[in-house]
Amino acid sequence: MTTTREGSLEAPIRHPIDWKTPEFYDEDALNAELERVFDICHGCRRCVSLCRAFPTLFDLVDESETLEVDGVAKTDYVKVVDHCYLCDLCYMTKCPYVPPHEWNVDFPHLMLRAKAVKFHKGDVKGRDRLLTSTDWVGALAGIPVVTGIVNRALKTSAGRAVAESVLQVDKRARLPEYHSDTLRKRHPHLIGRQAQGEAAGPTTGKVALFATCYGNYNEPGLNEDLIAVFEHNGIPVALAGKERCCGMPKLELGDLDAVDQARQANIPVLRQLVDEGWDIVAAVPSCVLMFKQELPLLYPDDADVQAVKDAMYDPFEYLMLRHKHGKLNTTFAKSLGRVVYQASCHQRVQNIGQKTRDVLALVPETTVETIERCSGHDGTYAVKQEFHAAAMKIVRPVANRVKQAQADHFGSDCPMAGAHIAHALEREDQQQHPMTLLRLAYGL
Q1: How far is CA 403 from the centre of its chain?
Q2: What CA–CA distance (Å, rounded) separates 291 from 312?
Q3: Residues of the chain below pLDDT 50
């Protein structure tokens, strides 16, 4: 993408996030910047279709006495902030005023600052602290006896009513199951594994899998599909000796101290793997983006963070790099027919191109249709009582595209988005992750 202002063909850039300074948390300075950027957005309105943040802003302006941003009460700014889940699409696909434009609009990172100020003031619900504590919730719900109780309770109307009443988790939202038999428990032999890989291009040919909270506790089968596909391609897979949440849920909450704690736990372990010659992949795009973009912008001078960034790959990006150098197994056992999948926001903004489509298109007698629209899930946004209806409205065009395609398979690069789309279609658990489809094509 290039900026669209006259005479400029410069690619957008991101500035480091100066989150450790007192000025970052100065509420008056924040409100001044929000007013400046909101006024630019009000005059443009190109992003109105992306999420609920922009319609909320424009409604506030249109209902104000002045019909301008100066007529909106600053106490109402938070209504816009709460609808932003940092998908980054406005920055990467719509906004003509991103840096290096002189107006210097970075809407997502301004929303991040506003969320951080809100969190710093203590203006955050206990529910949100809980839902973003994915390590703690996963470990608790992963206790064998607790797992059964939690999974059964969340499938009953009574259990969902209690969750809605106590936690304000919408009783209509789709919630994932938990597994006591986690990925790391299933594959202890991969923890600290020693192996040699065959280098190709920038890849070393051996990968350390960042399992992710979701891929460890909720859908370990997805990571098993990835392991099977990579091993089938002669790429040894290892698991880190220890792992914490990447920090993306806490980032979206504005809890930057918790993000820092996750960094302190993960980066030294991952840096050691990089030094040992391992590349790093993760099956959840948000986790890849956290290490490739957000942490490097939060810690621009941290050499370890930058080293991990350089070694982090989306799994389909990695496979296509191998294919470019003749190292991908293209002998497939069966075709996939017609595939339609949603390219998740946090994969799209990595600027790697449509690598998922490109890999799946290598399968004979297979056609792939990509949907480039947000699903509106965002990990926790879609399950919250006050936002569930908005999330369902956002996903509706995606679900309609899937329905119209009448494909043999559908899903998303993001497993949570895929499940949300299936929920909107009333086809619960019929989604298939592209990595699952690739394993199916190999006949593994």
Answers
A1: 24
A2: 7
A3: 1-8
Residue 279: which H helix or E strand, with range? strand 279-281
Helices (H), 276-365: 285-289, 295-298, 303-311, 315-324, 345-348, 355-360
Say what the pLDDT of residue 5 is.
40
Strand partners, 410: 340
Q: What phi, psi does 137 have (nearest 5°)?
A: -65, -45
User: Do residues 411 and 437 lie in contact, with contact meaning Cβ atoms separated by under 8 Å?
Assistant: yes
The model's pLDDT over 350-390, given as tens digits with 9 standing for 90+, comes to 989 899 999 999 999 999 999 998 898 887 888 898 989 99
Helix (H, G, I), strand (E, B) or coil at 337: strand
How far is Cα 14 from Cα 7, in angstroms, rounded to an integer? 20
Q: Check residue 15 and give its pLDDT.
A: 93
Instruction: Report d(CA 429, CA 411) in Å as an integer.
Output: 10
Neighbours of 431 (CB within 10 A): 23
Q: Tell me which DSSP letter residue 239 carries.
A: E
| Predicted local distance difference test score (pLDDT) of residue 287 | 94
The CA distance from 345 to 356, in Å, is: 13
Residue 342, sorted as left (phi over 0), alpha (psi -120 to 50) or beta, turns out to be beta
In which residue are the tokens 């006050």 written? 386
pLDDT of residue 11: 78
Q: Where are the alpha helices (DSSP H) in 45-83?
A: 53-62, 77-83
CA geometry: angle 190, 196, 198, nearest 5 deg = 125
Nearest to residue 320, comparing CAs of 371, 357, 351, 289?
357
Q: Encoding tokens for residue 239?
A: 């698991």
Tell me the C-alpha distance between 350 and 246, whole Å: 16
Specify the 3-state DSSP secondary structure of 241: coil
Say what the pLDDT of residue 9 is: 59
pLDDT for the residue 4: 41
In DSSP notation, 166-219 reads HH-B-TTS------SS-HHHH-GGGBT-------BTTB-S-EEE---HIIIII-
**3-class SS of residue 392:** helix
Q: Contact, 210 vs 240, CB < 8 A?
A: yes
Residue 308 token pair: 């991990």
Going along the chain from its start, the domains and CATH numbers come out as 22-120 (no CATH), 126-167 (no CATH), 183-320 (no CATH), 328-442 (3.40.50)
